User: Fold this.
Amino acid sequence: MLNLKRHLAAVLANAVFCLAIAITTYLLTAHDVLSDHLAVSYCIGFSIHGAALLGLRLFPARWPPIVAAVFSLPLGLLVGLSLGGAIVTGDPLFFITREFSALVYGTLFGLIGIAAYVIHANLWATRDALEQERARLAIQQKTLAETELKLLQAQIEPHFLFNTLAAIHGSIRHRPDLAEHMLEHLTLLLRASLKRSRSNRTTVQDELDIVTAYLEIQSVRLGARLRFSIEADDGLKQALLPALLIQPLVENAAVHGIEPLACGGQISVTVKRHGDHMNIVVEDSGAGVENAPPSAGTGTGLRACSRSPKQQRNICK
Assistant:
């Protein structure tokens, strides 16, 4: 479609250029008939244009456009003058062997047209190269974002998995019912995480399933100290979002906000529509950043959530 638009634009520009040439030559030789100038001008102009297209097909694409231009000018002049002579006088050789004014004007304006053509072709080639470079950079950015996400998942999930398995191991003998409850939700969590790992984007519902399983496990560890609620608008549950966006926030709220407090607290996760946007809010009634104890964490979870909007768009594409 783009090449068709370019060709149509070139044809239109050539038609306007030929019209301007015909009027110019007619004014210089006012005793002639305007229709004759139009016929000869359009014959030469479109013959050179056709020869240029032929040259582009004959010569390798790596050759500069000037090569096709040098080829097209004499060939187009010869064909155009022959057609013009046949139309105007009935003699195809009239403007080649008897009347040389058309040859002079054709050569002069042909050189101008060829120069414009070469400049135009170079501009389009530069634009195409820029578009290809933009596409290449977009692919690289998407690949980088996907790789970063995989690395972050690899760092976060084993950390939680080992802690949970240790808690299950410690509960098997004394509280088998709690161990079974934790194992059930760990299975749900791992199943949802496996589904998420197969794609760099997920749905709100899938992400909330992971968060629910995680908080159920933590509620066993913390008991009555942890209370949580999860709410989401029904119309948003199948909305797409980058994977690993909500869980790290919930994990930070549980580990750094609620767990340090003897009285515990509340974690709430809400997903609401706000105009054309989706608001995801994770809140806790914990100690707060200023009162939180020193953490041995690496900040991996928050880095997963703080990806730039551009990186998030690349992941969701």
